[in-house]
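PROTEIN DATA CARD
Card holder: HIT domain-containing protein
Chain length: 162
Origin: Picea sitchensis
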Amino acid sequence: MESHRAAAEEVYYFGPYKIEKNEVFFTTELSFALVNLRPVVPGHVLVCPKRLVKRFADLTAEETTDLWLSAQKIGSKLESHLKASSLTLSIQDGPEAGQTVPHVHIHILPRKGGDFEKNDEVYDVIDIKEKELKEKLDLDKERKDRTTDEMAEEADEFRALF
Ligand code: AMP
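Structure generated from the sequence above:
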């Protein structure tokens, strides 16, 4: 009963941001996955440890295993659901590597033939989008790029896969 209540009241943080439960589509004991405010391709989602830690090296072995097993499961489901044929999985580990949210996260991007003119442009796009987002956050303290309804609707769609 106690644990049931705790689960119902679970709150998710992605760095400094409180994430609404309707934006979370997958959870395990140690990890959660959320839809993206600014996806660079359809189905670009993020998997995070529940514990708020900044760097990959800060994770315990259990958290690391759980995070990657979650990413494997999510990537595989999203790839077939979105009729993609490959996946890009990436971590920007630290600010000089492009990390803008100080909370470990794996980017999962379902990939399709020809989605970028040059294949590795995907990494540039992740980075450019981040700089724009940061400027926007600094300027107006708003995080609305996609609407919360749009994000919740996508999370419902993805949650149904698990
Ligand atoms: P990184 O640059 O690797 O730190 O990636 C940050 C990612 O988080 C980007 O894909 C952003 O679009 C995404 N993002 C930032 N803030 C939020 C938020 N509040 N909810 C969902 N996604 C977010």
